[in-house]
Design brief:
The chain is built from 20 helices and 19 strands. By secondary structure, it is α/β, with parallel strands linked by helices. The strands form three sheets. It has a ten-stranded mixed β-sheet, with helices on both faces.
Length: 546
């Protein structure tokens, strides 16, 4: 599974590869620069056919060295290239300085100052390359570099571009101004927002966390990852270096399994055994008139593979549910005593609390649900969503009942109620890098709660108490705006519950469910409503050969 890296992790991999003797820093820089040009020509083939004009902005570090390679390669292709440097060449790292000097033998290096910079309304430029700071940015951009970036951003806004030939904006590794570890734009106290609005960002070896979080996708444009030789023999040496805290993209489990009473596993696509061998999920519902959310969760749990699903509801809601549900069973659960009695059924092996439940009812039933039946000997895996999360907020006694089998699924507002100090830190504008990220926040929340936390959004982050973390980013080619519809979160809660019933561990169930949730939306497309998501699962499973 491909990792998402921090800037420090990427530098560690590069240093290990160089130390192995299999590759040099100059080799990596040359490959990076040439990879950027390859990506440019692949994205815009018309730029590869005739000569054009380019402006390359180079910074004082190795990102600037990559930019000098790009300038040299374009010059060799017959382009007219202007290069501007921010910083003192005497203070550049050795490899970047070598490529600076190579370019000086071919063309001039201008100082990056607004007064000497091409005024974009008057001078046509086909390509701008941002090689200013990359992953190394640790503070807001200021001075002349900030003025130039504001000028570029203002002059290349859509309404301005439509008045002349369109420029192509390319960032190397990370658009300048963006923290590569958090996806936040680093902001100064009183300056105009200085960042580079890329159409195409070319990164190396692996995507960085900031590419998929927060502001990242909006600034990155299209993301292309180029291999620079760290995936081959040199990577064998790099892998020997300990890289703590690796974040992975969420993916559907290649083999979704469930332990049965007999040795071995059962694949989700193979319906052997009886229905209870595939798990029994209990979805707790609210009163009459509020049952739609629970029904969505129940259908999600059933479609994703739970053998049996039961909705537990107050007496006044039984008729409502009976009129809308067929394959899903119903049980009266009026109060905590009813729930405790129902949980004596050992076949019930996963719970879902919250969707349409009502906050007071959730508070009444949470402690019993999370404690489980004494005869079972351990609490059941449980998904807490919506009203159950609101019930937890500010209730230390209930929060203390959480256990390692729980999955909390807050959106941003619920996260702020559950973890106010963590949310406040996350919301603080980033002024230095690496900035506190949604990954950091979700990991801290999972450690505090002692269970898996799935922090929802287009950049959903899932973290376990032991620090394992993954991101399900519905961005770039996986964008799914249709999921912003009432009830989609209830279906996701049902998906997770159904996979818990099938026997998946909480972290794997959350990762798999959120990935399938997006795939269902992408498969259906525009016009999606929440009811469509469970019904789309068979199509997605067939596409995955499950």
């Amino acid at each position: 599974m491909t990792e998402l890296l921090t800037a420090t992790q990427m530098r560690t991999i590069e240093a290990a590869a160089i130390a192995s003797g299999e590759v040099t820093g100059l080799d990596l820089m040359e490959r990076a620069g040439r990879g950027v040009v390859e990506a440019i020509f692949a994205e815009w083939p018309e730029l590869a056919t005739t000569s054009h004009r380019a402006v390359v902005l180079c910074g004082p570090g190795n990102n600037g060295g990559d930019g000098f390679v790009v300038a040299r390669v374009l010059k060799d292709q017959g382009w007219e290239v202007k290069v501007f440097l921010s910083g003192d060449p005497e203070r550049m790292p050795p490899d970047a300085r070598v490529n600076h000097d190579r370019w000086v033998g071919m063309g001039e290096v201008g100082r990056l100052e607004l007064d000497g910079f091409p005024q974009l309304h008057a001078v046509h430029t086909d390509l701008f390359v941002d090689a200013l700071f990359g992953t190394g940015l640790a503070r807001p951009i200021d001075g002349e570099a900030a003025k130039v970036l504001v000028h570029i951003r203002t002059a290349t806004e859509p309404h301005e571009r439509s008045m002349r030939s369109r420029e192509h904006l390319v960032a190397i590794d990370v658009p300048s101004g963006l923290c590569s570890d958090s996806g936040k734009v680093l902001r100064g106290a009183s300056q105009k927002l200085a960042h580079f609005p890329a159409d195409l960002t070319v990164t190396f070896h692996r995507a960085k966390i900031g590419h998929v979080l927060e502001d990242g996708p909006a600034l990155v444009g299209k993301l292309v990852t180029k291999d620079i030789g760290l995936s081959g023999h040199a990577m064998v040496h790099a892998r020997k270096v300990h890289l703590p805290g690796i974040v992975k993209p969420a993916r559907v489990a290649g083999r979704v399994v469930r332990q049965t009473s007999a040795p071995g596993t059962v694949d989700i696509g193979k319906w052997s055994g009886h229905k209870y061998a595939h798990g029994h999920a209990l979805i707790l519902s609210g009163p009459f008139g509020y049952g739609g959310a629970a029904r969505l969760a129940a259908r999600g749990a059933l479609r994703i593979g739970a053998g049996v699903v039961t909705v537990g509801c107050p007496t006044d809601a039984l008729a409502e549910h009976a009129a809308r549900l067929d394959a899903i069973m119903l049980r009266r659960v009026e109060d905590a005593a009813d729930l405790a009695g129902m949980l004596e059924d050992r076949r019930i092996n996963a719970l879902c609390l919250g969707p349409g439940m009502g906050v007071l009812r959730a508070k009444t039933l949470l402690a019993v649900a999370l404690k489980g039946a004494e005869s079972l000997g351990k609490p059941r895996p449980s998904v807490l969503d919506a009203d159950a999360l609101t019930a937890l907020a500010g209730e230390p006694a209930l929060f203390a009942v959480l256990h390692g089998g729980c999955v909390l699924t807050p959106h941003a507002g619920e996260f702020a109620r559950l973890f106010p100090n963590i949310a406040a830190r996350l919301a603080t504008p980033a002024t230095t890098g690496p900035a506190y990220s949604k990954v950091d926040a979700t990991r801290d929340a999972a450690a505090r709660a002692g269970c898996v936390v799935l922090f929802k959004g287009a950049d959903t982050v899932i973290a376990a108490p032991d620090g394992r973390c993954s991101i399900n980013a519905a961005v770039y080619d996986r964008t799914s705006p249709w999921l912003a519809t009432a009830g989609s979160g209830d279906v996701l809660a049902g998906f997770i519950t159904g996979l818990l019933a099938r026997g998946l561990a909480p972290m794997q169930a959350a990762e798999t469910a959120v990935w399938l949730h997006v795939e269902c939306a992408r498969s259906f497309g525009p016009g999606l409503i929440a009811e469509d998501l469970p019904n789309q699962l068979p199509t997605v499973f067939r596409a995955l050969s499950i």
